[in-house]
């Protein structure tokens, strides 16, 4: 081949035949059928991964979809969902026209209305709210990939009540990472797949960055690098681990601390790395009772200080010439203080973190923990790699090579979905940093625009909410102390979801999972309209589904719904649509514009930033509109600043227009590529009217490759930092210091001790004191800590199957064939103890209720854990499924028995069932018991719900699907 | 294997039909039975009727029966194709034999030769049918030395019991035929018992380990590739409970062997028309029993694809 | 013609790496998607939205738990036509609809000749063939015969859809009859195996066994960690290190 092979699957054993001319077989097979009339390159939306796809159009229909070989995310591969996009697009569950509710909420009785009527209903309602009390609009979006638009819209409307679904998905990982290293696992960083020699994977991770991780795992396997998985379930990625550690759920933090304990004890930590890139040497005030106890010792300019062990004096911790001490106790300006590292050593060298002390709780043999620690140390310190590339650090020091420690880690939902997830996530980052493996060759690498300062700059807006007035910033941001909270004088939350309140101070993604309950209860206040997008809150996106449904339909004495008005946009007839008063039907991803923006969730990889677009590749055959364009029109009709020009007329025709012409700050818009009138700038520049075409011409995306010397040590790499400033990623080319010890958390602790201007109410102080620990620690997940463990002896977990993660799989004729019923997986020995055999029907009972399903006995699961595939169970009448579909008869939804609130504390207060630091929904804290059901109860799931009526003009789903027959017919007819 | 009625009936009916045809050809050709017109028309009519009904029924198993003619083309490699060819070719001597017997009222001379040829055709056809099953390596219960003889024995058995019933009914009973039918039913019973014994002790080298290439230890199915039953499971994943199977084996033995043998023994000692009635009953019972036997032949056969599904 | 070619010019087939397959179903739906509009179109789905959904697929992924004395492992196992060297599915076919190509060894069904007798599916020990009850004919993996030679595709795309899709690079394609080919080398290096070799079908496709708990497993020659020696324990060590 003349050109080097492109794409991920280009090994010699994956290439075409050397001679691809068809042999003369004489069997009449058409080996060169015409494939497509045109190929449109756009971005997939079957999940959150944002892969590049080539959509092949034949005879006006989508013939097939494959991966874009040039795309930085998927490099030509495509997942099980991506190839099934056709069935999503041609789904019989697709909405057809705007709907207005006619029957009772939840019945599914609607009438079709025109868009004009839909707009005028929404505009009238929302403009009243905006004129009177903007916070009475709660706007929450689900798997929204346009949060820089939706959040900005909320901000211009003037409501602080905005978030997407990150609060019940990823915020522990985001906050845990951003407050520690200024970046996070999730999809904002990645292992150095090409160089790592030892990869540790914590918990369910199939949810985000799925094709990049799979491509990476393939590379590790091809090289024979070691893969260690720490997961109660041995499925998916864990199946291919060389070493599977079947940990007990919620104890990952303990396990990590035991590794840290072993590494510290053996002196196997990278002191040089700690001194250069972290706050390990920063001095911390040690004066219990003082108002600055636990804060950094700073100089007059506010710079944190360190102790110079040679000069025997305090110095600016950032001084590159200093020789800082890492241990000891010092007096600076008359104050007792110690370096952060001393505190780390004191805490984690304690015997309570020794392998023997944690082994039983983790369900991992102490010897195994010691072995893993030894392996980590061996690879990090004996298999060091050096890339022969010179680079210059922030202080101007030139390094002739790039040194790396080839240990990398990844963690996601398995860590995130516990009430101790924030601290556990921080613990894993601490382990990485101690080994010196963050943004080094072979380690974990940031994807631009990360790293940012830990935490990043913008604070959440919403301190002042006034009629007809935009917020003074975006609704979501990062608090640095109690002063940044969104609470009133009495310490009560001012956001409907109680984000950034004492309940969840670091709620960087909001708490979408609390909105329905809070709005229903009028706590902290009643709202008027709940507007939602693309999130199935009346089913699998809510905890405690049964009560959630009741709240959505509950009314006051006067017969008015407690949540007065619900606007919902979705492309499909999901379980949530019937609960809306006004339904705005969305298009599919093949019919609209989108931008995958650096302002939001870009498609960067560690070697360079990138962003992408979607553009319509087929025309809608029905009266539906892309939600983002609808939102822009609604903004214009409401006259929101930024959405109208000086004359009050619409500033943007639609989303495409907005993508090209909107500027968040001068020169910075949704897309970074081909900016400037002539399209020659990147990152910063005037709007380019041809920008979208340039993206389309380039395959639907823009990507910039870093120079070789910019690719590692980005937190302190001068060349990279300068580039990041130019791109607007960071305000100043200053090093990003990893915050092993988190001062913002300590500020909350001090408030709990009565120091500062904004103080927690008396009843909250103990909770704040406990959980806002500036160093990561482990505590028992909340539900485990309160339930009777004899009565509920098992952990219960859910995960989506890889072929459905973050996808709307059950109306997909192909994907649902693979999984249309979920089983409860039970360990053989646990099953034997309960007298269970394969296929038995059981009640799965928690303190919150019970649900019925069928079991499958397995070996590859932690013995005290049961688990199932999530969101397979569906409600009858939804998703275009027939009444006999397995999903609504045999599939079950574990959400029914996951509480949305904690048990009442001593004061009788019930918090959201969430992490106390970030408000992350604690899906995985669930404890259950499993009881074999009576013979007459077997064979069908419970609880059952009333069947939804079908919307007007909804044809019954077909009995037979011959997709593709027409392509062949046309092909043969043409011959 | 899924016991589709069309195939169960097909093999049972054609077996009986070819058995009867062969015996008519041989006994007729050797003039052991009289060239009686009515015996000829009923006997050959029954034999060819069973064959035709069976073949017709087998097309019910086809996805595209209108293309059935194509099945004659691959006789060089395919037992099914050979069966098709043999079954059709057999109609030629069988037809000539019938013409001789019915129109010329004779079964000697060239008619006898036609009869012998028809008998050879019948035997060949039954062999090809047996070989269709015996050649299938993925089904150990079929891919055994018991299968081909079974098809021959059962064809002869059902044919002879039918022939005996005919001869008894026409008052031209032959002790030789009666004795043959009794003896061969006994042989059939013995063969079936031996087959079952063999199958029950079968140690199949193909296991979930070899099916997946995963050496050593145990291989257990965790999840199927699909939730609902697909073609493979519907066609080849049929399972029968041990208890159910044992009961059906008893019914098979009672109907196909014990009852016919009892009735045939009784025939030795009772006069016409009771002998005719008992002989007919024996034939009917045996045919019903053989349908059950053939149903079990499928139901108890385990295809290797089930290993992939942990069945 | 159902007689087998004596010496196919090539033995095209797949190599599937069970050590790497995570069971993501990418190959499964990529195959469905290509082929439902391809040579054997359509891959009909009966009752696609109901309780007895049953579609035609050429590639299916099972999962197993393999437990030996050395330990347990979950194994994701893609199953499709192995394009055997001596495929009984071909020789049993009464009509000549099933055949093995002499040029490349691909086993195909000529739909126009198929009478839907299903005997080929009985003869295949691997469950590679699926009957399309709507059309009344047997369907099966074509090894993407309409991709690998397709002039209408870019040359680099002329590989089976499953191989192009696989996100973990667990699938490989090539001429297994040529011992020098990259796939043959891979099979040799990784100890690739045949499925059900005892039946004598001589499958062309090979499977690379999982490496965990075997001699081939990735391992780290780490010595047990020892606490730092001498005065001051760990903190003393830190001080000494910094002083160096």
Short descriptors:
heterotrimer, A: 975 residues, alpha/beta, N-terminal domain of TfIIb, Rossmann fold, Dimethylsulfoxide Reductase, domain 2, 5 domains, seven-stranded mixed beta sheet, six-stranded mixed β-barrel, 26 helices, 35 strands, C: 244 residues, alpha+beta, Alpha-Beta Plaits, three-stranded mixed beta sheet, two-stranded antiparallel sheet, 7 helices, 20% helix
Outline of this structure?
The complex is a heterotrimer of chains A (975), B (311) and C (244). Chain A is built from 26 helices and 35 strands.
How would you characterize this protein structure?
The complex is a heterotrimer of chains A (975), B (311) and C (244). With 975 residues, chain A is an alpha/beta fold. Chain A has 5 domains: 12-89, N-terminal domain of TfIIb (Single Sheet); 99-163 and 455-585, Rossmann fold, CATH 3.40.50; 174-449, Dimethylsulfoxide Reductase, domain 2; 610-703, no CATH class; 783-937, Beta Barrel (Barwin-like endoglucanases). Helices cover 24% and strands 16% of the residues of chain A. Chain A has 26 helices and 35 strands. In chain A, strands 5-4-25-24-23-6-7 form a 7-stranded mixed β-sheet, with helices on one face. In chain A, helix 4 packs parallel to helix 16 (627-638), helix 7 crosses helix 11 (366-382) and helix 10 (355-362) crosses helix 11 (366-382). The mean pLDDT of chain A is 96. Chain B has one domain (5-62, 71-308): Up-down Bundle (Formate dehydrogenase/DMSO reductase fold). In chain B, 69% of the residues lie in helices and 2% in strands. Chain B has 11 helices and 1 strand; from the N terminus they run H-H-H-H-H-H-H-E-H-H-H-H. Chain B has helices spanning 5-29, 37-59, 79-103, 110-134, 147-169, 175-200, 208-212, 231-236, 242-269, 274-299, 305-308, and one strand at residues 218-223. In chain B, helix 5 (147-169) packs antiparallel against helix 6, helix 5 (147-169) runs antiparallel to helix 10 and helix 9 packs antiparallel against helix 10. The longest helix of chain B has 28 residues, at 242-269. Chain B is globular, with a radius of gyration of 21 Å. The relative contact order of chain B is 0.14. With 244 residues, chain C is α+β, with helices and mostly antiparallel strands. Chain C has one domain: Alpha-Beta Plaits (2-Layer Sandwich), CATH 3.30.70. Helix content of chain C is 20%, strand content 20%. Chain C has helices at 26-35, 88-91, 119-123, 145-148, 161-165, 182-190, 233-243; strands at residues 12-17, 45-46, 54-55, 59-68, 71-80, 98-100, 107-109, 130-132, 137-139, 171-175, 206-208. Chain C has a 3-stranded mixed β-sheet with strand order 10-1-11. Chain C has a two-stranded antiparallel sheet with strand order 2-3. The longest helix of chain C has 11 residues, at 233-243. The N and C termini of chain C lie far apart (81 Å). The chains are: A alpha/beta (975), B mainly alpha (311), C alpha+beta (244). At the A-C interface, strand 3, helix 1, helix 6, helix 7 and helix 9 of A face strand 1, helix 1, strand 2, strand 3 and strand 4 of C.
